[in-house]
Specification:
By secondary structure, the chain is mainly alpha-helical. 60% of the residues lie in helices and 0% in strands.
Length: 246
């Protein structure tokens, strides 16, 4: 799915860099059908993943804290693959993906919940890449709805992306499913202002640190301690897109 999407992503990025709207996709690829399942895993407790996990894993996970349950079921490279997959879907078909997920606020909340401990700590880079795609998805939806002009220059595109992403993040922070209900309104506003400023500067590493801070710092659940496991064979051909290449 990722390999098939590369040419589409390049075309979309070229269009955005030229100040045009993303090319419309006439039909959605069949692998988008996995989006609802992916969101269900990110938003549900351990019992929702019982069909894909060993009984012992589920039993342990169900006795863990709510924000740690998914980490106990998706503790390996599957967790990062889940986030990468959502990021690709948002890049290739933002409108269809957001509709399947229930909106950008729900996607942002699921990713923020993951950063609070529901996913291993090493998935943060992929989470920030997903946030980047989420902001561009908001721009694409705005262009389609007529609320965002089609011919944006670079500065206007950055502003629209920042506003779109921060709007989704604001919904995420106010969602009752966001685990850290102790975060004050002032702290939320500071976070949103800093993220918006860093999007304008294209400081994605700074956004990663801001997300880590508001989500409680670097967390290490019992299954996500230490470095991530070695790459699986399928990942050897994966088009790596780390924060340093954005």
């Amino acid at each position: 799915a990722v390999t098939a999407a590369n040419s589409t992503i390049k075309a979309q990025n070229a269009a955005l860099n030229a100040g045009h709207a993303m090319p419309a996709q006439p039909t959605n690829p069949s692998w988008l059908n996995l989006v609802p399942c992916s969101m269900h895993l990110l938003l549900s407790d351990a019992s929702a993943a019982s069909s894909t996990a060993a009984p012992g894993q589920v039993q342990v996970a169900q006795s863990a804290k709510k924000e740690q349950q998914v980490a106990l079921v998706l503790a390996g490279r599957e967790a990062e693959l889940l986030v990468r997959y959502l990021g690709v879907c948002l890049e290739v078909a933002p409108q269809a993906t957001l509709e399947m997920c229930g909106g950008g606020g729900v996607v942002a909340m699921a990713l923020m919940r993951g950063a609070c401990g529901a996913l291993p700590s090493w998935t943060l880079d992929s989470t920030v890449i997903c946030f980047k795609a989420l902001g561009l998805g908001a721009v694409s939806l705005g262009v389609a709805a007529g609320t965002v002009p089609q011919n944006l220059n670079e500065d206007q595109l950055k502003m629209a992306q920042a506003q779109g992403l921060c709007g989704y993040l604001q919904q995420a922070l106010n969602d009752p499913r966001f685990p850290r209900n102790s975060v004050s309104p002032d702290a939320k506003n500071i976070f949103l202002e800093s993220v918006g400023a860093m999007v304008l500067k294209r400081d994605w590493s700074g956004i990663k640190n801001a997300v880590k801070q508001i989500c409680g710092g670097k967390r290490k659940t019992g299954v996500s301690q230490g470095p991530p496991p070695d790459y699986s064979p399928w990942e050897q051909a994966f088009d790596s897109r780390s924060l340093s290449t954005l």
